């Protein structure tokens, strides 16, 4: 554990979605794409090639569960998974931590917690310039719905 590493910290309870033996799942602050989550390895590890077989195997099962939960929760159409870790290398002493960005994608509008989510880039690369922060009440509603279907 590296105390300066964001992913080594305990997730905020409001954003916390799920945990397994090796992975934490939490709702990303940016909800441009409804249900976007971060899936972070619990131990500090800076490279996918250093994942242990049991961590990778559990990750694959988690992918199946998360995708199923988002289909049930919000009728997600497809999913984008990315593991970039570029931001870590913007620091003088980089400390990358294996984590995945999970972006559900939608070919239709979704309304939840009084908000409308529309994926205008559906079928194309997600738009990195768009950012959407939502209220804690909306976060709780989204997290609760995902948990209900995990």
Q: What does it look like?
A:
The protein is α+β, with helices and mostly antiparallel strands and about 150 residues long. It has one domain (about 10-150): HIT-like (HIT family, subunit A, 2-Layer Sandwich). It is about 25% helix and about 20% strand. The strands form two sheets. Strands 1-2-3-5-4 form a five-stranded antiparallel β-sheet. Strands 6-7 form a two-stranded antiparallel ribbon. β6 and β7 (about 115) form a beta hairpin. α1 (about 55-75) packs across α2. The radius of gyration is 15 Å and the shape is globular. It starts with 15 loop residues before the first strand and ends with a helix. The mean pLDDT is about 95. It holds the Pfam family HIT. This is HIT domain-containing protein. It comes from Candidatus Kerfeldbacteria bacterium RIFCSPHIGHO2_02_FULL_42_14. GO terms for molecular function: catalytic activity.
- CATH architecture classification: 2-Layer Sandwich
Question: The CATH topology is what?
Answer: HIT family, subunit A
* Alpha-carbon Rg, integer: 15 Å
**N-end to C-end Cα span:** 27 Å
Percent of residues in β-strands: 15-25%
Poorly predicted residue ranges: none
| Major beta sheet, strand line-up | 1-2-3-5-4
Overall average pLDDT: 94
Helix residue percentage: 10-25%
Q: Helix segment count?
A: 2
State the CATH class: Alpha Beta
CATH evolutionary superfamily: HIT-like
